[in-house]
Structures are given as C-alpha cells and as structure tokens.
Amino acid sequence: MRKSRARSGRPAAKSGIAGAAALMGVAALVVSAVPGQAVAAAGKAPGEVIPGKGTSTPSLVDGIREGVRASGSAADAAREHLADKPGRYHIAAPGRDLRPVQTAASGRDETVRLQQKYGGVDVLGGQYVVRMEKKDGKRVVTGASGKYFTGLKADTKAEVSEELAVRRAVEATLRELGGTWLGTGAKAARSLTGTAHGLVIVPKGPGVLTHHVTVRGTDPADGRPVLREVYIDAKAGFPVLQYSGIKTFGGEGTARSAATASAKSAAAAAKSPAKPTDGVSPGIAGSGVKYDGTTVELGLFKDTARNEYVMRDYSRMWDSTKNLVSTWDARGKDVSEASGAWPAGIKEFGSPGPNFGKGATESGAVDAHWAAGKVYDYYKKVHGRNSLDGRGMAINSLVGVTRFGGAYVNAFWDGTKMVYGGGDDEYKTLSADLDVVGHEMTHGVVENSANLVYAGQSGALNEALADYFGNSIAVDAAGMSMDDPDAGLLGGDLCRTKKPRQCAFRDLNDGKTTSKNFLGVGFSTDNGGVHMNSTIFSGALWNIRRDVGRTLADRIVYKALTEYMTPLDGFTEGRAAVIAAAKSLGVSAKDLNTVTRSFNARGIVPDWELALGVDTDLLSGRLNTAGTGVGAGGGWWAASRSNDDGSEAYSVWAGRADGSGSPKLISPNDGRYHAYPATDGKTVVWVAVGKDGMDVLSRPLAGGPTKKLYSSAGINTVRVEGDVVVLEEQSGFGARHVGYLRPGDKAPTWVDDRREDTETAMPSVGGGRIAYVRITSQGDDFRSVTEVLDPRTGKVTRAGESRKPSAIGQTGINGTHVFWLAHEFDAQGKGGSAVRRANLDGTGVTDLNREKGAQALFPLDLTASESAVTVTSLPPETATGNEALPKLYQFAADGSTDPARARVSCNRGEQSSAAAVGGKQVVWLDGTTGYTDLVTRTRPAGSCG
User: Fold this and answer.
1) Helix (H, G, I), strand (E, B) or coil at 817
2) Is the model's pLDDT at 426 over the cut of 80?
3) Element (H, E) at 465
4) Backbone dihedral region of 570: left (phi > 0), alpha (psi from -120 to 50 degrees) or beta?
5) Does residue 648 have an active-site annotation?
6) Residues with Cβ within 8 Å of residue 321, at least 6 apart in sequence
7) How far apart are alpha carbons 904 and 887 in whole angstroms?
8) Where are the alpha helices (DSSP H) in 342-449?
9) What is the mean pLDDT of the segment spanning 92-103?
10) Comparing 445 with 532, which gets the higher pLDDT?
C-alpha cells in the first residue's frame, strides 16, 4: 500500500474554524463553490487587498481613504460603500443581505459590524466589518474585513420542524455525553433542555440550512455543566455541527486537565440589586486580604436591609450606567446551577464592617472582587472601554462553586458572568490569580466584539486573546518585567505548595510552541483544541509585547480584536488583523517588522497547515463527517463520508482494508444521513437518519438491494456478524437498550426487555455471541455488569467482578474471551479504569492493563479481534501536548507479551473510532493532517518514545 506522508500537492486545510472543523467532519466552513480570486481586477487594487478563500469577497481591504456620505447612520454609510464598489466586494445587495449588528465609536473612528443573510436567513460566521473615520462633518472609509460567502445556493425552506430539531439536538448531546460508558450517571435525572434560535446557514459548499439549538443542563455522568451549540440539518434532522459554549480557563472536558482534580443578560441583571436612586452615595472603600497576604481596597456598599457591608461596587460605572461590579457567595452551589443560570438564594459577600475577614479571603471573594475592578479599570483606562460590552454592563462574579459537593478546579465565562470553583487541597480558588480573572472577563470582551466561534482555530484564537490580555493585566499589576522567566505563566499563583512554573496551566513564553505543534482533534476534544492550540497564537502576541513594548502591543492587539477580526477567523486571519492594526496605528517600520517576525517565528504564515506527516496507510481521505464511527471486519472497512466541501448528506462507503481495489458506494443518495456503519466483510449495516426517524439498513458487499431491518426514533450503534444484527437504541430521555435482529425478525429481541429499571449499552458481537453492559437500579443503589448472550440459545452469562465498578465501558468479544473497560472512581474522583478480560463463561477475570500505577491509562473505547485488543485511551497523567491526546494502544488478547502493550501509531493528532479488521490490523479516524482521514496499520508502531 502507498504510504501517506506529507502531502505537498494537497490543498491546505481551511483557515479559521475550517481546519479543525474538517477533523470532525464538519468540513470546511468556507464556501468552495466560488474560487478565491484577486479583487479589483480592472485597474490597480486600492491599498492592500487580501483575497478571501473560496469567495469573491476579499478577507481584508486596508490602507484606503474613500469618501462616503456623512449624513445618516454609520451602518447605512458602510453598506452604501460596499454597494458602490461591486467590482471589489462582490456583494450584490448590501442593503438586503447585510444586517447591522454593532456600531462602535471611539473618537472619530467608527467600526460597523454587518451580519450576512442569505434568503433572509443568517449565515454562521458571515460577518463583514467596515472601518470609517468621521471628522468635521465628513466620513471616509479606511478599510473592511471579514467573511461574506458569495457561493451560497442553499434552499432556505426547512423540512424538519423546530420541535424535532430541538429533540434531535438534545438526543445528540445525550449521545455524546453518554459516550462509551454506562454507570451511575446513566440513571441520574436527565436535565437537558433545548432552546431553538431559528434557522442558520452553515457555510459549507453551497450552504447547509440548519436549526440552531442551544442545549443546557447537567452532564448526567459527572455533573459538569452543559451548554452546547448544536446545528441540526433542516432537511434531514442530523447534527452537522456541535460544540461547547462554556469558555473555561483550564479546558474542562479536554483530555485531562486540572479541572479533572448563555442565559440572557437580562436574567442575570434581574438577580442584581436595584440601582440606587439619584443622589445616593456610590459606595464606600473597604478592604480585604488577598490569598497572597496583601491588603487591598474594595469597592463596597452599606446594605441597610442586611445591616452589612457588601461586595457591591457602584463607583466604577457611577458616571455612566450606574451598573455594578458585584461578587456573590456561591459556596455550596453546584457548578451545574451556575452555568447559564442564576443559583437560587445566593447573596453578595457581606461583612459586619468594611474590613472583610478570613472567610472572604479563603473563599476567594476578596481576590475576585478586587481583580474584577482591576480588569474593568484596565479596559477603561487603556482602551476607553466601559465594561465588557463597551456599554457599561454589570459585572457579576460567582465564587466558590463545587462539583457534586467536592472540588471544582476551574473557572468559566458563561455569556453573562464569571464563575469560579472553590479549589481543592492543591489549587486555591481560581479567582486567586489576577490573570485567570482577566482571562475570563476578556472572553466577555471577545464575545461583545469579534465574537470568535469557540471551536477549532477560531476558538483557539478566542482563548489566545483571553490569555494575552489576562497575562498582560496581571504582569503589569505585579510590576513584573517581561524578561522575568515567569512573566508568561497563566495560573502560576494558584497552587498552595507548588512553585509557579510547576503550577501554571500555560506558558506564553515557552519558546517552542509553533504551528508545527498544532494538534488535530475533533470538536469533542477541547472543542477542537481551543486550549491545546491557543499558545501558538498567544505566544506570538506575547513576543510582540516583549519586543515592542506593553502599551503599544496592547493597543495593537485590542484594535485587531475590536475592529478587524470576525467570528470565523483563524490563525492566518488573526495574523493579518494584527499586522493591519499595527499599520493603522502608524507604528515604525522596525516595530512592524517585529510584529511580522513574531508570527513567522511561531510558524503562523499563509498555508502553514500543509507540512503534517503520518506513519499510516491512507484508506480514504477527507471524509468530512462528524460522529459517525467506523466499521471493520473480514478484511473490509465501512465508513461514512461527505463530498469535498462537506455540504452533502453522508453516504456509506466500503473498501478492502489492504487498500486494493476501489471503495464501493453502499448507501443510496436520498438526502438522508447514512451513518454508524458496521461490516463483517460480507454485509454492511448502518443507520439512515432522516426527518421521519432512523432506519437500520443492510446491504451485501457483493451487491444487491438495500433492506430496511428496523425503524426507530433513536439509534446509537449497530453491529453485524453473519445473520445477526445488534443495535443500541436511545430514547429521547437518554435511556439505552440493546437488541438484536435475526433473519425474518420484524422487531428486535431486547436483551433487557426494555425495562424501566434497566439499561443496556455498548454492544459487541463475535464468535456467535453478543456482549454488552447492563445496569440495574436497586432503589438508590445500582448494579453494573458485563454480560454475554448466545442468541441461538438465549443463555446469558455474567462476567464476575472483584468489586463493584462505578461504570463499565465499551465491550469487545471474540471466540474465547469477552473484554470491557471497568471504571472505578469514588465520589471524590479518585481511582482509575482498567482494561478487563474474562472467559466466555464469566470466569477468569483479569486485567490486561490495571487502573492504577505508572502505566495506567484512561481508556475511552475498545475493539477486539481474535488476537489483539485495541484501546482508544488517554495516556498516563504526566503526558502533555500531542501525547495527551487520545491514542490507540494494543494488547495481546490472550494476555501474553506479544504485545504486552504497544502504540498502534505514532501519528500526531487525535486517533478515534478504531475498529478491528483482524489480527493486529485496525482502521480508525485520524486527525493529524488537519482533516478526518480513514487510515490503517497492520501492526503496532511500538513505544513511540
């Protein structure tokens, strides 16, 4: 087979969200129907013009001074300018297709943000910015930038109802949260709700019409807050894009972070105390002691109703909106109560006197209140910005939240407020470090300016800006030199016993993180690498600050954020924005060279995504699909794929695992999404998802008609061996049940009889038997076991367990053994997960890899052949960067040392959805190249040391 390595002739991964989106199969969120082209072909282009990718509209026009009428609104003037230059902008009807969303004025500068609409429907990330100057009754346009997609041809009539879209969004979120585990959380109350926001066009190819749904609630497995943005195809009801909207500091929900140890603004404002009437004092100055022992001044208010001094600072916005900077006592509240919602019964921290004592220090309230004021002051004094939205919004900080009553070591911005965990034995509350507070509040600034989509490269850019400003504010407040070895640390002051360098979450001055270190991951991992890849860009910004000076660098980056960047910008567009902002500020040639050189040093140059190689054999490249899995068996693979721009509904293809021959199209192209395929080398079985439900379909590899085996509202998984088809069904409430079909069956035989007190999940089939996990409620207790069923006789055998696991993960089975993942964590999160094996009669339980110790893994998924067990796992705790991503580890099925444990592939990037072909060969989805590629290896690569 041909080895697939660095592809010099391959198209570059799309910038912005596109590169990481392709990893998830969300494909490039950049229109490819119209090729990028030079603008202003007739005559010399004015100023600087950077063509857009896959669109006729330029991504940046700068260095111009073109008059436009001064009367009327800035938005009308901006659209008039675009209409007057059709040969440059290629926007046919700006007055109809561009809706004003924001106008920001600073002195004589005006920045107008315009949202693209197509057929009356908003386009995701389709935003164009026009920059103008207004002086002495005259107005001139100085530049424009953003994304306007000129190749859209989507039908704007939905065939899926909003009600169905909400249900599918909730189901998709439950499916992703449930993952490959079944345990106590599966029986917890499902508290997810969906809110529809109307139709949105996702700009892939000619465009995909979707329903935008926000899903909120609590992860039933681990109690983490859930706030997911889900886009449901409005023709077939399939989730084509989904990502988390919670902007955390530590990357909760990523591979394994320190965190393991948006409601409307009006909703939060309604919980805030009423503003004082005119003539009432704006407050008094009190004090408190920070975690570091420093006594600081606090803005307080004497609440006569409570007869206390409370952390309610009117003074900062007294001369504008009279809104507050308030710090609330959320100790004892679970993090799920504070995400996108306001916990019942909380109050602002109070004290009998104006000098707050030990309790306010240890809770982190003093640090949070002081730091919120400092961040407000920075943006107001340095950039003239009045609060996070630039219009004097209230600033609320909730301090001390827990997770299941235990430690929560993280902080986040949820769209309306900052939330800080109470910390643990090692970590203080995260409000105890000014750079964390600055980071979270900057997310609010980003959301109210460029509003960078929190996924993929645009999400990493969002995180990079939050890190940059958070670090800048903290370094300056501490009087620290930029040459100090610890000046680039984020979160370095959070630990109780460790030194800053040991404690820090990130280091912007690591001197090594470049685009060559970019980690290709799907949106289910760190939202497509928003924290993992952020230091590539923030490191370049940090270098600029060190080399050109603090004040100038901050002005450049702030101007780039607020006047140039738009929601789908990635690293390349971010670079162009910063350079253009520097030019606009009239920096010297020397400083401009420094800015450019800083990006070059970090590898952020046009088409930087090209030089990523692999050690695997390519079976099918650029699948452009998301969350559909892979099937393999009998020397064949089966996978879903879309077209080159990812705009078409998915089809199922199959091919030989040795790479010979050409892949075969298995499913019909009927507008439905054909997903979750499985094959045994003779038959392919899959699920067709459409507006009317989900059908389990099958077709022989040798050819023949497609058969419908079963219809359901929700199918998670299918498996096939011979004449037995196994499936896992999920109800709208998240309950999961395993069933199987034999020839002639009109409905599945359910292994658990679909009892309300029982769930079954994670099936596998092999050697004529079916393995699955069963969890049964026993009052407030539960029992979770692995079972093996012989469908020929109906006999069920349970595998023994030496102790009750808290959850059981994916099963695998061959002719001699059953395998599963055993999750053994206590309420405090201590414990681990083992790769476990038993004989088919349930005896001989042993661990192929134990849950504790130096070699312990954190397994996520499993697949088995007769000779090998391949586990998708996070590596040991000490791993970082590329090595911290999900990788494939292989064990000998018989427990021998051939191999005892080996890495299947040394590829960078995420490895997922592994399926055993036979022997030691597996196929999987690999994100290393910047796309979702189906790849294989016939034997392990070794230790990758």
Assistant:
1) strand
2) yes
3) helix 456-477
4) beta
5) no
6) 386, 387, 391, 392, 393
7) 8
8) 358-362, 365-383, 434-447
9) 95
10) 445
Query: What local confidence, expressed as pLDDT, does residue 39 receive?
Result: 36
Are 386 and 392 within 8 A, CB to CB? yes
Residue 374, SS3? helix
Tokens of 632: 């393999």
Within 478-588, where are the H helices?
A: 500-503, 526-529, 534-548, 550-563, 571-584
Considering the candidates 383, 439, 531, 823, report the single residue annotated as catalytic. 531
CA atoms within a 13 Å half-sphere pointing along the CA-CB vector of 333 = 24
CA distance 78 to 94: 9
| Whether residue 219 has pLDDT greater than 80 | no
Which of 510, 466, 517, 473 shows the shortest CA–CA distance to 488? 510
Q: Compute the distance between CA of residue 344 and CA of residue 336 in angstroms, rounded to an integer.
A: 12
Cis-peptide, bond into residue 899, ω within 30° of zero:
yes
Q: Which of 337, 440, 563, 787 is catalytic?
A: 440
| Strand pairing category for 325-329 and 395-401 | parallel
Residue 531 bears catalytic tag: yes
Beta bridge mates, 11: none
- According to DSSP, the residues that pair with 833 across neighbouring strands are 823
Beta carbons of 33 and 208 less than 8 angstroms apart: no
In angstroms, rounded to a whole number, what is the distance separating the alpha carbons of residues 263 and 267? 7
- What are the angstrom distances between the C-alpha of 353 and each of 286, 302, 331, 748? 8, 9, 21, 69
For the chain, the average pLDDT equals: 87
Q: Which two tokens stand for residue 604?
A: 């952020």
Distance between CA atoms of 25 and 931, rounded to whole angstroms? 8
Interhelix angle 534-548/550-563, nearest 10 degrees: 140
Both structure tokens of 771:
């393995």
3-state secondary structure at position 696: strand
Amino acid at 203: P
| Ramachandran bin of 235, using left for φ above 0, alpha for ψ from -120 to 50, beta for the remaining angles | alpha
Q: Nearest-CA neighbor of 810 among 784, 830, 786? A: 786
Q: Which domains does the chain have, with CATH numbers?
A: 1-27+450-612 (1.10.390.10), 48-146 (no CATH), 162-245 (3.10.450), 262-423 (3.10.170.10)
- DSSP 3-state of 419: strand
Q: Tell me the backbone φ, ψ of residue 883, rounded to 5 degrees.
A: -70, -15
Block residue for tokens 């920045």 = 111
What is the helix (H) or strand (E) element at residue 286, kind and residue range?
strand 284-289
- The DSSP code for 731 is -
Q: Flag the least confident range among 179-188, 216-225, 513-522, 526-535.
A: 179-188
Quick check: helix, strand or coil at residue 810? strand
Interval 755-782: pLDDT, tens: 988 999 999 999 999 999 998 876 666 7
In three-state secondary structure terms, 60 is strand
The pLDDT tens digits of the residues spanning 548-565 come to 999 999 999 999 999 999
Do residues 232 and 160 make contact, with C-beta atoms less than 8 angstroms apart?
yes
At residue 806, the pLDDT reads 75
Closest CA to 388 of 326, 339, 447, 327: 447
